[in-house]
Amino acid sequence: MTDGQLSHATKAALSERVKELTCLYGIAQIAGEPDISLEEVLQRIVELLPPAWQYPDIAVARITLDGIAYLTPGFRDCNVTQTAEIIVDGASRGVVEVVYIEERPDLDEGPFLKEERSLINAVAGQIALVIERRQAEEDKLKLYAQLRHADRLATIGMLAAGVAHELNEPLGNILGFAQLAKKCPGVPVSAKEDIEKIEVASLQARDIIQKLLVFSRQRQPKKIRVNLNQILQDSLFFFEARCAKEGVELIRILSSDLPEITADPAQLSQVIVNLVVNALQSVCGTGRIRIETRFCDNSVQLIVADTGVGMSEKLLEQIFIPFFTTKDVGQGTGLGLPVVHGIVTAHGGSIDVKSKVGHGTRFEIRFPINKPQDTEESD
Ligand SMILES: Nc1ncnc2c1ncn2[C@@H]1O[C@H](COP(=O)(O)OP(=O)(O)OP(=O)(O)O)[C@@H](O)[C@H]1O
Ligand SMILES: [Mg+2]
C-alpha cells in the first residue's frame, strides 16, 4: 500500500467520522429545541440519517415509533437495510432503519460499515432518551396539574364546610319552627300546605348541606371490615329493574378473591349509587354499564364504565367541584361526584377517570388495604 493510498483511506475514514459527528450533533440540537413536537423531532432526525451513511445518494431512512412511521422522501423497503431498535424503559417502542435502494459491495455488515452500526445504535439511543425526557416532563406537568386540582378542591372543601356549618343552624330553626307552626291549633288548611312546602324545601336544603359536609370530609366515616362485592350486590339490586326497563345492559365482573377493606359501608354504597346513576344518565336509555371489582397492587378497585356520552377534557377538570353540573335544573345538583371524592379521600383512596366524548366514561376507584391508619373505628 502506497502513502498516497493510505492517506486516501485515512481521508475517507475521517470524512465518514465527520458525517457521523454532524449527524449526532444535529440530533442533539434538535432534541434540545424547546416547543417542538415529538413528531417534528423524529421527522427532522430521520432526514439527518442518509447524509451520514457512506452512500448518501442511494440511502433512505425510516423511524417507526409506536406504529407511526417517519420517512425520508422516496423511502421504500429493500433487502439492504441496517436497523436498530428504540428501547424505552426496557420495552421496544420502534425501530430506526437505513436502507440502500441499490446493491453495493459487502463490507462489515452487508454493505454497511461497522461505524455505521455504532452510529445507528447511537441514533436509536438518542431517540429513546428524547422520548424518556419528554415523558418525564409530561408526567411532571400532569402531577402539577393534579396537585393544583387537589389544592383547589381542598380550598373549595374548606369554604363549603364553613358555609354548610353556618347554614345548618338557621336551617334547623326554619325546619323546627315550621313543624311547630303546622301543629298550631286553628292553622288554616292553605297555610298548612304552605308550611309543608317550607318543610320539604328545608329538608332538601339539609340534604345538600349533608352532601357538602361529606365532600369536605367533615363527616367521619364509620369504618368496619367489609367486602366491596357484597356492598355492590346490595346497592345494584335497586338498579336492576331500572336498567332492564330502560334497556341498559348492566354487566358485573366481580373478583372472586377480593380481600375485605376497612370502610364505611353506607358511604361505599353512596359511591356506587352516585357513579351508577351518572352512568345511567349518560347512556340515556341505550348502552352498557360495566361494574368490575379487582384486587391489584395491594388495593381493592372498583370500576364503573359506561358507553354513554363521555366528557371533554374541559368538563373532566370540573366534575369534582361542588354544584358543577351539565344537567337541567331538577335533574342534578352537581354534588354526586364531590361526595364520591370526599368519601374516597376519607378512605385514603384515589379516583382515576378516563372519558371520550361519544364513547363513554370509566371511573376507577382504588381503596388501599393494609394501611396503618386503616384501623376499625367503633361507634
Ligand atoms: N358517567 C358520566 N358520563 C358523562 N358525564 C358524566 C358522567 N359522570 C359525571 N358526568 C358529568 O359530570 C357532572 C357532575 O356529576 P355529578 O354527579 O357531580 O353531578 P350531577 O350528576 O350533575 O348531579 P347530582 O349527582 O348531584 O344529581 C355531570 O353533570 C356530568 O356532566
Ligand atoms: Mg350525579
> Structural class, judged by helices and strands?
alpha+beta
* The named CATH superfamily of the largest domain: Histidine kinase-like ATPase, C-terminal domain
Poorly predicted sequence stretches spanning 5 or more consecutive residues: none
Biggest sheet layout: 5 strands, mixed
Instruction: Give the tally of β-strands.
Output: 11
Provide the succession of SSEs.
HHEEEEHHEHEEHEEHHEE
Provide a quick synopsis of the model:
It is built from eight helices and eleven strands.
Can you give a write-up of this model?
The chain has helices spanning 3-32, 38-52, 114-183, 189-215, 228-246, 265-283, 313-316, 336-346; strands at 59-65, 68-71, 81-88, 91-100, 224-226, 248-253, 261-263, 287-296, 299-306, 350-356, 360-368. With 379 residues, the chain is of the alpha+beta class. The chain folds into three domains: 3-139, 2-Layer Sandwich (Beta-Lactamase), CATH 3.30.450.40; 145-202; 221-368, Histidine kinase-like ATPase, C-terminal domain (Heat Shock Protein 90, 2-Layer Sandwich), CATH 3.30.565.10. A five-stranded mixed beta sheet has the order 6-8-9-11-10, with helices on one face. Strands 2-1-4-3 form a four-stranded antiparallel beta sheet, covered by helices on one side. Strand 8 and strand 9 form a beta hairpin. Helix 4 crosses helix 8 and helix 5 (228-246) packs parallel to helix 6. The protein starts with a helix and ends in an 11-residue tail after the last strand. The model has no long low-confidence stretch (mean pLDDT 91). Magnesium ion binds at residues 274, 277-278, 332, 336.
